[in-house]
């Protein structure tokens, strides 16, 4: 009987002990950040297409067989440098024929001049009539006109001959050479022989979303002020590296594209080493500054497509946490700029995935994070 009583007593004692444990749960310590407004800088990137300062398509001015290709793709050429040579045989013959025509026309003019002089003497002696003299003057004018036509034909033939050697129109870099030696070429070709790009300055053409443009317009006051005051921009290349020279915004289109809802901009980048080429793609980057609240990325968690954090609220001497939905903007690898919090909120910054709404914590207060733009 005594043994049974002791056993019963131990069972009730264990139950009471368990009940006491449930009523007095442990309170975890958690790092907590007290939020504060600060200046945030966000790298803003938009895709861009690269174009040289001046890209000129090289098309032949005359037809014929391409005899020589005197440049190579990617070669840097100077203004006036020979690039291609077209068969000049027929054009040289045309020049010689035109020269012969000029000589005959010059002889006709000389004869007509002698005739006019002779007729003038006879007119002065009243041997011939005024009419006969005028006829001879007109013959001289016809001979002179024929000479002018012959000289024009010679110039045209000489120009055609000169165009058989195609020269670089400006200093730049040779693009893809479409036609090879032995090809038949003409001014009506669908594709140029090549393109010479002056890439001493590279223009990055990009489309700025209307909403982003309106934000800039609100901040700077006018389109001209945006161009004048917007900080220098960076260029992020296709491999993720940054181009070593910064660029300046030069133009903003006055028309918003109805299809894309974007406005075109052009940014100029110096390209002294020739690293950038026409036709390339990149991303234009500039820093956008605003006042905001910053929290560590580790303080957030996602449920479906929403982002949350835990905010601690003090009631008497007890801190109870509750989840709060927020909008975030990535500043760097470790920090978010946040909308949905107010200055002074106490945000839990560690172990958030193990917490639940209504849980009590013992806060360990952090300092406000310093933004490190990486």
Feature tags:
19 strands; single chain; disordered C terminus; 29% helix; five-stranded mixed beta barrel; 374 residues; rod-shaped; 5 helices; alpha+beta
Residue fraction in strands:
35-45%
Enumerate how many helices there are, as a single number: 5
Average pLDDT for all residues? 88
Termini distance?
77 Å
Could you give the count of β-strands? 19
What is the percent of helical residues?
25-40%
- Spatial ordering of strands, largest sheet: 1-18-15-16-19
Biggest beta-sheet profile: 5 strands, mixed, barrel
Briefly note the structural class of the backbone.
alpha+beta
Would you write up a description of this structure?
It is a single chain. With 374 residues, the chain is α+β, with helices and mostly antiparallel strands. It is 29% helix and 39% strand. The protein is built from 5 helices and 19 strands. It has helices at residues 2-23, 89-124, 130-162, 210-220, 223-229, and strands at residues 28-34, 37-58, 64-69, 76-77, 82-86, 165-167, 172-174, 184-185, 194-209, 234-236, 248-256, 262-270, 281-296, 300-303, 306-315, 318-330, 335-339, 346-348, 360-366. A 5-stranded mixed barrel has the order 1-18-15-16-19. The longest helix has 36 residues, at 89-124. The protein is rod-shaped, with a radius of gyration of 43 Å. The relative contact order is 0.19.
């Amino acid at each position: 009987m005594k043994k049974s009583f002791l056993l019963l007593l131990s069972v009730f004692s264990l139950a009471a002990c368990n009940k006491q444990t449930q009523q007095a749960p442990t309170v975890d310590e958690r790092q907590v950040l007290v939020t504060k407004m600060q200046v945030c800088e966000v790298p803003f990137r938009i895709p861009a297409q690269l174009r040289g300062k001046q890209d000129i398509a090289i098309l032949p001015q005359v037809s014929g067989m391409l005899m020589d290709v005197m440049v190579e793709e990617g070669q840097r050429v100077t203004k006036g440098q020979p690039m291609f040579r077209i068969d000049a045989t027929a054009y040289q013959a045309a020049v010689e024929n035109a020269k012969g025509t000029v000589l005959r026309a010059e002889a006709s003019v000389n004869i007509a001049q002698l005739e006019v002089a002779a007729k003038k003497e006879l007119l002065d002696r009243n041997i011939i009539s005024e009419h006969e003299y005028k006829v001879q003057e007109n013959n001289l004018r016809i001979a002179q006109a024929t000479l002018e036509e012959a000289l024009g034909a010679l110039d045209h033939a000489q120009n055609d001959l000169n165009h058989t050697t195609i020269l670089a129109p400006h200093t730049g870099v040779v693009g893809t050479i479409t036609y090879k030696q032995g090809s038949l070429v003409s001014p009506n070709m669908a594709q140029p022989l090549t393109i010479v790009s002056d890439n001493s300055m590279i223009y990055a053409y990009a489309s700025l979303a209307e909403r982003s443009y309106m934000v800039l317009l609100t901040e700077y006051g006018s389109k001209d002020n945006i161009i004048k005051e917007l900080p220098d921009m960076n260029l992020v290349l296709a491999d993720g590296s940054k181009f070593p020279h910064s660029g300046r915004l030069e133009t903003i289109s006055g028309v918003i594209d109805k299809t894309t809802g974007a406005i075109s901009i052009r940014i100029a980048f110096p390209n002294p080493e020739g690293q950038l080429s026409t036709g390339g793609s990149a991303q234009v980057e500039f820093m956008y500054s605003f006042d905001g609240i910053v929290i560590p990325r580790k303080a957030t968690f996602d449920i479906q497509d929403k982002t949350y954090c835990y905010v601690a609220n003090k009631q008497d001497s007890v801190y109870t946490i509750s989840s709060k939905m927020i909008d975030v903007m990535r500043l760097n690898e470790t920090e978010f700029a946040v909308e949905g919090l107010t200055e002074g909120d106490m945000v839990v910054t560690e172990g958030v995935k193990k917490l639940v709404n209504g849980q009590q914590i013992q806060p360990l207060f952090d300092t406000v994070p310093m933004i490190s733009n990486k």
